[in-house]
Amino acid sequence: MFVAASAILPVRAESDETSAETLFATSCGWCHSEGGRVAGKGPKLAGTERSDEFIVNRIKHGKPGQMPGFGEGLSDSQIAGLLSYIRALPNE
User: Fold this and answer.
1) In sequence order, what DSSP letters do the residues of 16-85 get, joined into one string?
2) Radius of gyration of the chain (CA)
3) Which one, of 88, 86, 87, 62, lies nearest residue 74 by Cα?
4) What is the pLDDT of residues 55-89, one digit of tens each?
5) How confident is the model over 5-15, as pLDDT tens digits?
6) Domain ranges of the chain
7) Does domain 16-88 sit in CATH 3.50.50.60?
8) Closest Cα to residue 74, out of 16, 12, 3?
9) Given pLDDT bands bounded at 50, 70 and 90, which one contains residue 49?
10) ∠ at Cα 4 (3, 6), nearest 5°?
11) What is the mean pLDDT of the chain?
12) Cα separations (Å) of 16 from 33, 40, 74?
């Protein structure tokens, strides 16, 4: 009996290979302007004083009426990448 490798091994989603900058631009950039460097529909993220736990929770669960949650569509590694991206933004 032949069993396909994909039935045994986890398949890595293409989006897991997307850079955090690209992921931010396509998922967050609609509201967090200029890559999170300035306020838009959403707040400026560069230089935020929010904790890592707060940011991860907000990405995963959103804020009712203001921001959708992305926990169902993003992996933990993608969310960690977004956090790293936000932390690396220059606070101009």
Assistant:
1) GGS-HHHHHHHHTTTTSHHHHTS-SSS---TT--S-HHHHHHHHHH-BTTTB---TTTS-HHHHHHHHHH
2) 16
3) 62
4) 999 999 999 999 999 999 999 999 999 999 999 99
5) 444 444 444 44
6) 16-88
7) no
8) 16
9) very high
10) 130
11) 86
12) 23, 27, 8
Q: Please tell me the distance from the alpha carbon of residue 50 to that of residue 17, in angstroms, as a whole number.
A: 27
Tokens of 16: 């897991």
**CA–CA separation, 16 vs 33, rounded Å?**
23
Percentage of residues in the chain having pLDDT higher than 70: 82
Contact at 8 Å (CB) between 46 and 89?
A: yes
Tokens of 35: 């890559």
| Sequence-separated contacts (24+) of 48-56 with Cβ below 8 Å | 48/86, 52/83, 52/87, 55/83, 55/86, 56/80, 56/83
